[in-house]
Design brief:
Structural class: mainly beta
Shape: globular
């Protein structure tokens, strides 16, 4: 089992930046993948970015070139740097962790609001 704790959400103006962090309860190297999905009101949950333990990263089309996912060797944390945020990025952002057996776990979610 994996517990995930997110932090870093909040309110930002259009064009601004935020950094989200997700801390896992066990070594990130025993996890197949970690990353972020988001869900806006009335919409389906969509992929933001995922980092596979091989080092490969996968980004949703709407965030390519603006968001960067990264991890720190020796730490059980994955970060999401979000740049040039736009109102359409407003959503609850959920961290996910997939075990080597491909069981998926979710964090509690953190709100990101982009508004002037």
């Amino acid at each position: 089992q994996v517990q995930l704790v997110e932090s870093g959400g909040g309110l930002v103006q259009p064009g601004g930046s935020l950094r989200l962090s997700c801390a896992a309860s066990r070594s990130i190297f025993t996890i197949y993948a970690m990353g972020w999905y988001r869900q806006a009101p009335g919409k389906q949950r969509e992929l933001v970015a995922t980092l596979i333990n091989s080092g490969m990263t996968i980004y949703g089309d709407s965030v390519k070139g603006r968001f960067i996912i990264s991890r720190y060797n020796g730490e059980n944390t994955v970060d999401l740097q979000m740049n040039n945020l736009q109102p359409e990025d407003t959503a609850v952002y959920y961290c996910h962790g997939d075990t080597l057996e491909r069981d998926r776990y979710w964090g509690q979610g953190t709100q990101v609001t982009v508004s002037s």
